[in-house]
Amino acid sequence: MMDFFMPCWNAEQQALRTNSCSRAGPLQWWLACLLSCFLCGFNQAGAETAVQMDEFQIERGEDGIYLNTSLEFELSPSLEEALEHGLPLTFVLQAEVMRERWYWYDKRLALTERYIRLSYQPLSRRWRVQVSAQAIGASGLGMTLGTSYDSLSDALLVLKKVSRWKIAGLDTLDKNSKQRLDLRFRLDLSQLPQALQFGNQASSDWNISFTHTVRLEDLVK
Hints:
Layout: H1 11-22, H2 26-39, E1 52-60, E2 65-72, H3 77-84, E3 89-99, E4 107-121, E5 126-132, E6 145-149, H4 152-160, E7 161-168, E8 179-187, H5 194-201, E9 209-215
Antiparallel strand pairs: 1-2, 2-7, 3-4, 3-8, 4-5, 5-6, 8-9
Helix pairs in contact: 1-2, 2-5
């Protein structure tokens, strides 16, 4: 267990770490997390979990620009294990509308964000997905929409699906300028407990990131 940290330098260390974690309770499990940060190397630095996009569509509505898409990616066994041990994961989807300027830096016209928090509730054995336009606090409370699901696969379907998400108002569009949409999706490592952030920054298992750019001229009427 606890493979979501970087692989250890040799098989003996890996076996020791796995055996100790398999017998650990919640407190011992977290202590093993911290210990692994110091015992393990950084062999997987720089790699990323592959993210693909299906059914991408931008449409112009009566009051704004809307995005419909579906993201495809898999959680590594180490991420699933972390969730099952009570560590929530927060994903961030950003939509940024930019006006291109040849004489200066491109100008940001709109920035819309969506925070999706995925967590597991051991008592009910259910998975919970919360969606918010603002960062979700450590307690998971606040102005968020939350729904529970029986399985991780059902929760992930909701997390990956984006339907009629308003990313900008119609006043953002300008037929006299070149505009584009920069779409970014990532696992927000800054939402992890501080003691875990350093070790997982270098692990490919925890590096989920995606960027896509599309022109917006076709939406201008």
